[in-house]
Specification:
Layout (H helix, E strand, L loop, with lengths): L15 E3 L4 E8 L12 H15 L11 E7 L10 E4 L6 E2 L1 H14 L7 H5 L6 H13 L5 H18 L5 E2 L3 H15 L5 E5 L4 H10 L9 E2 L12 H10 L6 E5 L2 H10 L2 E5 L15 E3 L4 H5 L10
Helix pairs in contact: 2-5, 4-5
Length: 315
């Protein structure tokens, strides 16, 4: 479990270059296989040995972690983290797992209009481009053809009303998110560089987005939380991201978008910003078509990816 501070590396962990894509992959492996001990070796001895290895190659402050944790940060293009002023997070699939409530709301809407329910996996594949697109794609999948505008308008209204009442039935912050946000704030306080801000930019309607962030304890970390109806356009149009950059006084090369899908990557690219892709989210497969600058496997890895002290591994 991520507590605070920064990342530490095992003694024998070294960057390896992938010849197929010329990216650097950094593997952090904390497990019995990485540091073999006799079967009956006490757990305290294992922890002491691991601590000794960490101290020999520690970078920045240590993060205390449970044993048997695997962390991966893959760097495709080094981010100049020391210059960053703004971190912009996606919401669904990045900070929270909202898939079940969204799927339930879609199927309730389909049922209300006489359609058969869809599999959760099918609906989950439609998440990420806003509520109207989610409803449109779901009705198209249920009917085998695009729905007419009048039906979509009614279905969209019903979906929003239903989702507002059920948005927190099963939705939760991913494990380690709150700890990671706290660690990023601490890293910001300790790094001695220009101040950075954190914000949320999602295609989810802004009212439920803000309500969810408040209910799950996320809201205090963010300068602002903008949704898909906060501006005239949605992601991947860069309008919302540019608004946040203006509020934070950040230039594109001082901004990083953190998200789980190609929509987030395209948003960053359209604004000239950097991007960190999250493989634990709702649409990680879409990152292969349009790769981000860095890919991480858990919220705990955000600190490693955004730590200026690890810049020697980014060369």
């Amino acid at each position: 479990m991520l507590l605070q501070g920064d990342i530490s590396f095992l003694k024998n962990t070294k960057p390896a270059t992938d010849a197929n894509c010329n990216n650097v992959r950094i593997d952090f492996l904390i497990c019995q296989e990485a540091i073999p001990l006799r079967r009956k070796k006490p757990a305290k001895a294992l922890q002491n040995r691991m601590t000794a290895d960490w101290q020999r190659t520690a970078i920045g402050n240590q993060i205390q972690r449970e044993l048997y944790t695997r962390i991966m940060v893959r760097i495709l293009r080094p981010i100049p983290v020391a210059r960053l002023k703004l971190l912009v997070f996606d919401l669904d699939g990045t900070l929270i797992d909202s898939a079940q409530d969204l799927c339930n709301s879609v199927n309730a809407t389909l049922s209300r209009f006489g359609r058969e329910p869809l599999a959760d996996e099918t609906i989950a594949g439609f998440i990420g481009n806003g509520a109207m697109m989610l409803v449109r794609r779901s009705f198209a999948a249920a009917d085998g053809a695009a729905a007419d505008k009048e039906l979509l308008a009614e279905a969209y209204k019903y979906f929003l009303d239903y989702y507002r009442e059920h948005k927190l039935d099963y939705t939760y912050a991913y494990e380690g998110v709150l700890e990671a946000l706290a660690a990023l704030k601490q890293l910001h306080d300790l790094r001695g560089g220009p101040a950075w801000a954190m914000a949320v930019l999602t295609n989810k309607p802004v009212r439920p987005a803000r309500d969810i962030c408040a209910a799950l304890g996320l809201a205090p970390y963010f300068l602002n939380i903008y949704g898909g109806n906060s501006f005239a356009t949605k992601k991947p149009d860069p309008e919302g991201l540019r608004a946040l950059m203006s509020e934070a006084g950040a230039q594109p090369d001082e901004t990083v978008v953190i998200g789980d899908s190609r929509v987030d990557v395209e948003t960053a690219r359209n604004a000239g910003a950097w991007c960190i892709g999250c493989t634990f989210g709702l649409a990680p497969e879409s990152l292969s078509a349009n790769p981000p600058d860095v890919m991480v496997d858990s919220p705990a890895d955000w600190t490693a990816a955004l730590n200026p002290a690890s810049s020697d591994l980014r060369q």
